[in-house]
């Protein structure tokens, strides 16, 4: 089974741990930052459980399903804290949680790919709508702000994982593109590096702005 948090590479895993330490060192007390650190902790816990029970698919499926749900919920909560229209985000979060219940009970068995796919798509829609609203209001400074950087953090990550998981086929993900590099690795390495680097850049900027 794949670890959907990161490519099964020690280097990526080390970078995730580094990102947690980095974001803790440069932590600025805000609710959205609490959610961000929670996302990093959640990911590390998911990775550890995946490694511990790699031969027990039923445990790993439940573990990854929980990760998918809470990952999306935390990003929705971050969006709620920063959004121009909080009510829109709140209703999106409620709709997503209802979908999770229906999907877990009636639609998918085992590993629930749709938990990530649907949540990620909803987040991307919120992001695009928020960007258009800010652009329509001629609030160009928003796109240069640290707030926008935080909202943008998971965009490439979600797009990359959605591209892989949407096929729901391990044979496609393991297709070798060149030099024995699989499609999964080709997409997953870059999106993870971008994802965690943006988190680190955001938290560092938060700390720097606080000290100015």
Order of helices and strands: HHHHHHHHEEH
Helix run count: 9
> What is the mean pLDDT?
86
Please mark out the parts with pLDDT under 50 across 5 or more consecutive residues, or reply none.
Answer: 1-7
Strand content bin: under 5%
The strand order across the widest sheet is: 1-2
What fraction, in percent, of the residue positions are helical?
Answer: over 70%
Radius of gyration: 17 Å
- For the secondary structure, the number of strands is 2
| Overall outline | globular
Question: What structural category characterises the helix and strand content?
Answer: mainly alpha
Instruction: Quote the distance from N terminus to C terminus.
Output: 47 Å
Largest sheet: 2 strands, antiparallel
Describe this structure in words.
There is one protein chain. It is built from nine helices and two strands. The chain has 212 residues and is mainly alpha-helical. It has a two-stranded antiparallel sheet. The chain is globular. Mean pLDDT is 86; it is low at 1-7.
Features of this protein?
2% strand; 9 helices; mainly alpha
List the helices and strands and how they pair.
Elements (H helix, E strand, L loop, with lengths): L9 H16 L5 H22 L4 H26 L3 H22 L5 H24 L9 H7 L2 H11 L4 H4 L2 E3 L2 E2 H29 L1
Antiparallel strand pairs: 1-2
Helix pairs in contact: 1-2, 1-9, 2-3, 3-4, 3-5, 4-5, 5-7, 6-9, 7-9
Task: Give a short synopsis of this structure.
The protein is an all-alpha fold.
């Amino acid at each position: 089974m794949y670890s959907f948090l990161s490519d099964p590479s020690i280097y990526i895993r080390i970078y995730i741990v580094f990102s947690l330490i980095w974001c803790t060192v440069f932590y600025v007390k805000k609710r959205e930052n609490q959610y961000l650190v929670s996302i990093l902790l959640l990911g590390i816990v998911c990775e550890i459980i995946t490694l511990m029970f790699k031969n027990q698919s039923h445990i790993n499926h439940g573990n990854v399903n929980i990760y998918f749900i809470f990952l999306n919920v935390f990003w929705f909560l971050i969006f709620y804290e920063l959004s121009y229209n909080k009510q829109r985000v709140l209703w999106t979060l409620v709709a997503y949680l209802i979908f999770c219940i229906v999907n877990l009970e009636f639609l998918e068995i085992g590993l629930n790919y749709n938990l990530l796919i649907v949540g990620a798509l909803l987040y991307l829609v919120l992001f695009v709508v928020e960007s258009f609203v800010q652009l329509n209001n001629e609030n160009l400074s928003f796109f240069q702000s640290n707030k926008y950087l935080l909202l943008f953090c998971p965009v490439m990550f979600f797009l990359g994982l959605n591209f892989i998981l949407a096929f729901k086929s391990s044979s496609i993900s393991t297709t070798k593109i060149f030099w024995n590099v699989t499609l999964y690795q080709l997409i997953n390495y870059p999106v993870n590096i971008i994802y965690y680097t943006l988190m680190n850049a955001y938290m560092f900027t938060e700390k720097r702005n606080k000290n100015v």
